[in-house]
From TrEMBL:
Classification via InterPro entries: NAD(P)-bd_dom_sf, Sacchrp_dh_NADP-bd
Name of the protein: Saccharopine dehydrogenase
Organism: Forsythia ovata
PANTHER family referenced in this protein's UniProt entry, alphabetically: CARBOXYNORSPERMIDINE SYNTHASE
Pfam families: Sacchrp_dh_NADP
Positions of the Saccharopine dehydrogenase NADP binding domain: 41-153
Superkingdom of the organism of origin: Eukaryota
């Protein structure tokens, strides 16, 4: 599952890099290991921009996954499920309610927490519920304070034997990775970033 979470991170990066492409079937299908290819993925905030983009990308790149759109707005959730089609469903859940979270996480293999804003969150309720239910966890946190609180759960996550990844979104996750990649290009003596552009433009 830890390897799957890292593959998911790569899939998210691919999704945002290709967000402006045509709505066609993608030839770059991600082949997941057999034991996780039919996993159930809960995306909290799945009707928002980041969560919705994540859901669409996963359904395109990993069509065997079962995607659950989690949120409080059933109308928006139903609309997203209709857009995703096969292997998707909506689950009404309140991320501020531990009982609601734990009930929704039952039977889920991985929860993607995209229900911001993280700047206003005083507790890591989703991560707490993930640890309690032994559900793999990844968030797209863009707030340093939240990130520090999330990292304080490391030992609990280890005891629960689950992977838990924080700040895995565009900022600071993907953007920092891109910056590091560009720095390596310049450090290697290249005088342009054409290689980086060519690689990110591949379909």
């Amino acid at each position: 599952m830890a390897r799957f979470c890292m593959q998911l991170n790569t899939t998210l990066a691919m999704a945002f890099a290709k967000e402006n492409t045509e709505q066609k079937s993608n030839p770059n299908r991600v082949e997941l290991p057999e034991k996780v290819k039919n996993s159930r993925i809960l995306i909290l905030g799945g009707t928002g921009r980041v969560g919705g983009s994540t859901a669409i990308a996963l359904s395109k790149f990993c069509p065997d996954l079962s995607i659950i759109i989690g949120g409080r707005n059933r109308e928006k959730g139903t609309a997203m499920v209709a857009k995703l089609g096969h292997n998707s469903e909506f689950a009404e859940v309140d991320i501020d309610d531990n009982k609601s979270l734990e009930a929704t996480l039952n039977g889920v293999d991985l929860v993607v927490h995209a229900a911001g804003p993280f700047q206003q969150a005083e507790k890591c309720t989703v991560l707490e519920a993930a640890v309690q239910t032994k559900t793999a966890y990844i968030d797209v946190c863009d707030d340093m304070s939240y990130s520090r609180r999330a990292k304080s759960y490391m030992n609990k996550a280890l005891d629960a034997a689950i992977p838990a990844i924080t700040t895995g979104g565009i900022y600071p996750g993907v953007s920092n990775g891109s910056q590091e990649y560009i720095t390596e290009i310049f450090d290697s003596g290249m005088n342009s970033i054409s290689t980086f552009e060519e690689e990110t433009d591949q379909p």
